[in-house]
Amino acid sequence: MEPEYFNFDEYKIRLAKLNKFAELGVEPYPHSYNPTTTVEDLVKNPPEALDFETAKQTSDHAVRIAGRVMLSRPMGTNIFVQLQEGNERIQVLFNRGVVKVKGLLEDQEVTAHKFLEKWVDLGDFLGIEGQVFRTQKGELTIFAKEVTFLSKSLLPLPDKYSGLKNKEIRYRKRWLDLIANPEVFEIFRMRSKIFALIREYFTLHKFLEVETPVLSSVYGGANARPFTTHLNALKQDMYLRIALELPLKELIIGGFQRVYEMGRLFRNEGIDATHNPEFSMVEAYAAYWDYNDVMKFTEELYAYVAKGIYGTTKIGVRKDRKGNEHEVDVQTPWIRLTMKESIKKYAGYDVDALSDDEMRKILLEKADVDPAKIKKAKRGILVATFFEEFVEHHLIQPHHITDHPIETTPLCKYHRSPSEKAQGIVERFESFFLGMEITNAYSELNDPLIQRSLLEEQERLLLAGDEEANPIDEDFLEAMNQGMPPTGGVGIGLDRLVMIITGATSIRDVLFFPLMKPEHSAE
Fold it and tell me: Can you say whether the dihedral through the CA atoms of 370, 371, 375, 379 is positive or negative?
């Protein structure tokens, strides 16, 4: 099938122009160009500007830049264009009788001025060499002396007045989104800076960045359904990783004291404002730490990133998942509550005073839950469901919610308090911000016997039909039996971190290429 745009009039017109380039002597797709500066540097740090006449006559102060044509206005003997590079634009002037086009075989029919007026379209890439001056209105402008064609655009850009607002198109065709919407370009540039700051912070704390396998014959480290693929060379099914935890712990067992990995994870789950099946995570493990050390480390990481972006921990007004606006601050220390304390404070329930049946009754009457799951859920899962249904949306400013039921994780150490341990409480915390979970961390379980029993229970759940339970990883258990030191571990969802720092309200706004349903898929 031919692409639809093959039939667009604009495409046919531009293709006809392209076919004329060889005859005119202009190379439409040269191999390279060597700018002396960027548009951004020129705009932010302009050289001393000349006046119009001096710029027209002199060859001093020449600059060479490159960019995409976003606007073109012929005005008598001059053509004014807006050239965009990245997120910045600068005005360029083409003056009849002065400007030259590299390679153009000029004649009376096609002068350089006429070529630039008739053969250059919005979206084309040009290289410009000329002098910097200011117009009578004071606008920084380049008086072009030589123009080098760099790339012919065969499809038009989004309408310059209405822009590109349709989210479906923006997410599917991110390149157009970046061209048309400067604020989107800035979010993704900020994302890259945030990642650099995170790496900088880990380096300052003497963590070693490592890489672990994306493909594995066994999955684990999180409650999630995996993606399955097939490895032809070994004739076996493989899984895309759902977490980084198990191999990173094996490196701690092997002798590294502090390790982290920033990478992509894959969970075969739903898609909404805060979930995408493919997402970015950082996981870190430090020998001899516990969850208290990790809490301090985590909140200071957020503060470090905020200061690196904004110069302060006050990051401005942000929207929660319901669309309400809040002035937020990631200043440390963050609010710390146990899960049971948070349920009492924000929902008004003392779960220790409720029986399992009473909790089930409340959940079935007041929450949107699966009755079948609630009716057979153990007490720890009921407590965690109370928290999810009645508390999470209240956690606007940064919170650490500590001391979770053992049923929520098979990889965490029992609480050091005998009374809490007897109730099946583990040393786990999750961090919340604007009503969404942003961090998951433990005092890591390092008793191989307890670890085996918990993973065996996970496998029983898996065989009973729980698609989010994990199989046993015998290599990991063997490593645990070699001895793992006391360890603190943390996982941070990087896409959600970027959402918080940039103010984005959907995970799709901070993923370059979010997962989308194929345009022509069957309903």
Answer: positive
